[in-house]
Amino acid sequence: MTKILLVEDNKQIADNIKTYLELENEFEVVCCNDGENGLFLAKTNDYDAILLDLMLPWIDGKTICKKLRNEKNTPVIIITAKSQLEDKLDLFEVGADDYLVKPFDLEELLARLKAVLRRGVIDQLFTFQDIEINFPKKMVFKSKKKIHLTLKELQILEILVQNRGVTMSRTDLITHLRGEESIRDSDEKLDVYICNIRKKLDKNLIETVKGFWYRIGEKE
Fold this sequence. Notes:
This protein has 8 helices and 12 strands.
């Protein structure tokens, strides 16, 4: 059974999430409604993942995540009402693995939760038709022929593979990719990176959804 800690002070939201996840028959959800107890539970117990509201009584989610990262690497998904890119970048800087902006669909929450759980056991080798990608060695082959990808192109592929089956927005990718680039530079270059990957590997490898979202399907 996968054990999840949910720190959320809105009882209705917490009840909805707990009920939805436990209907999957693979999750056990422990609920807490304030930051102080949430941090205590996160530090003193072992959870497979933590769903953490940003605005909480006593201690906010950002502070909890930052303090927790000094001791544990438990995957953390921040639930937030803040939608500005700068706010999301700030969450990654304190150690969040992913975020969800309120309001959100429970189906999306489940998909993102499964994605962060999967990252801890990411495949050494990902295959798509005649394409093979060895992420630890940063090696890519198409029809057994080695293909050169830039570091940014490999990072995009790794993010999409880690989240395969999940639709990733441009913002999702930019927040992971930005590094030393400005937000504007990263946004302008993203289309170039995606285009290059498709040209080098397969035009159907990365699916475009509604023009501004990207996805790699489940592993074949």
